[in-house]
TrEMBL record:
Encoding gene (name): ptsI_2
Name of the featured protein: Phosphoenolpyruvate-protein phosphotransferase
Residue ranges annotated for the Phosphotransferase system enzyme I N-terminal domain, each copy included: 5-128
Free-text function comment from the UniProt entry: General (non sugar-specific) component of the phosphoenolpyruvate-dependent sugar phosphotransferase system (sugar PTS). This major carbohydrate active-transport system catalyzes the phosphorylation of incoming sugar substrates concomitantly with their translocation across the cell membrane. Enzyme I transfers the phosphoryl group from phosphoenolpyruvate (PEP) to the phosphoryl carrier protein (HPr).
GO cellular component, one term: cytoplasm
GO molecular function, a single term: kinase activity
Classification of source organism: Bacteria, Pseudomonadati, Planctomycetota, Planctomycetia, Pirellulales
Every PEP-utilising enzyme mobile domain range: 156-227
Amino acid sequence: MKRLQGIAVSPGVAIGEAIVLDNEGFRIPRRFLARNVVQRELTRLHEAIARVTSDIEESRQRVSEQLGDEYASIFSAHVQMLNDPRLREELEEMIRDRHYSPEYAVSRALRRYAKVFQSLKGDYMAERANDVFDIEKRLLHRLLGERREDLAKITSEVLVLARNLTPSETAHMNPRFVRGFATEVGGPGSHTAIVAEGLGIPAVVGVGAFLSDASGGETVIIDGDEGLIILQPDEETLARYRHEVDHQRDLANRLTSLKDLPAETTDGIQVQLLGNIEFPSEAQQCLDRGVNGIGLYRTEFLYLANKGEPTEEEHYQAYRDVAEAMAGFPVVMRTLDLGADKLPALPDPEDERNPFLGLRSIRLALKHVDMFRTQLRAILRASVTKNIRIMFPLISTLIELRRAKMVLADAMEDLEEEGVPFDRDIKVGMMVEVPSAVMMMDHFCDEVDFFSIGTNDLVQYTLAVDRSNKDVASLYTSADPAVIKLIKMSIDSADAHGKPISMCGQMSGNPLYTMLLLGLGLRSLSTTPAAAPELKRLCRSVSIPECEAVAQRVLEMESSRDVKALLREELLKRLPEHID
């Protein structure tokens, strides 16, 4: 059994069969062969070994000619290792007797060899492990070719283990079958983490190198509460986690009793609970959990799920479906919030050394106005339901906001000339995600109808921490006093100008911070549908004076460690393990 610590980004526990997505993008599940194809698959293995041997010989010859035999000797070692009779016999036995696919047999056998080398001391042995990995990748490349499995096409329940997951891969995940995932890299607040929360599946990121210890088909535990993944769990550990899964299922069932009750504090103050969604299908999840609308509709999936730019009609169909499903509840649609490096329809930026400080979000939209106008036209067309609102992300200056509003006005004018109906009084808001927006809130209040605090980016830009970098992930925390003071300033400024303000970042969905946020004056929280029942339960367990007392103590603190300690203490008082 091997326990590995990462960063918890989506709560819950998942137990299941692993599917491994390695550095090369190969996904190697444990697949069994029918008896009548075993001989054919053995032949395919032999052909792959022969072709890889030829490839290595070509590399050896080329290096020998350019650098000499001394440098080419490594390739001779590769050929010798690849054609070792014991290795070939083991691979053939797995295919012939155990009916493993050649891909799985290669991955399982060679990773076992690599682990043996890694366990031995010395740089020489470490290099031999790298040689084994190189041979594995060459063989898999020949065996798989274009037959790589698509995460969207998985039809059995699995846990995905990967070096990293791209936004497009996570956008294609089906939560019915992908029950959880863990990645070697990444941090809290990354798009991968956000999608995991939206899908409601346990996820751990930033684990560090572990794929060499994992094999497809083996049982794995992902603990999204503690940030752990457990490989080859023993029976005692499996039993304990299965009990935890049963407990979480029981707790979720008990929380359904709160669906039709208001999120009202013990002293009668109403709290608006809204849902964050990424996909149109999640609108029903919001209704099932008794939220009061959608506070953040992330529209990025339309761009990530298409190889090209989505058409106006594709935008419109998705937005209309959500607006109609919510039937009178407000739906806040955030315009495109991605970097140029994430959009397959756009050329890669020429000098994007730091995407988080580069061409992304509203900046990208204003650079590609035609694409921006297409999305705005679709949102406006869907707004005939009268419950849609538009929100611009990552606004840092008044000029940016005014330019975005001008593009919106142009789209409105075009639709009017075409005789296309839309909500002429549609409300327009902006995200508060950068310190400059907080500093200029008094001026922004004159320009928009509402605000939503996006803590994922606000934390990142306030603390100068790349939220996807595991090496500095420990510095990324919503509990930092500087972040909390900026949130307080935003709420006070919006209240002073009579403008509604909500919060839609990960902080708003974490019960640890609920009392603090209510105490700071927030009365609207937008979170993933799965987190809403627990937040409602907590709201119904506290009074506003209690929350204000907690907030006052927090505002006097100097470190995130002290803030978290206090908040945990207060949370434990209100949320016992079981619902009475």
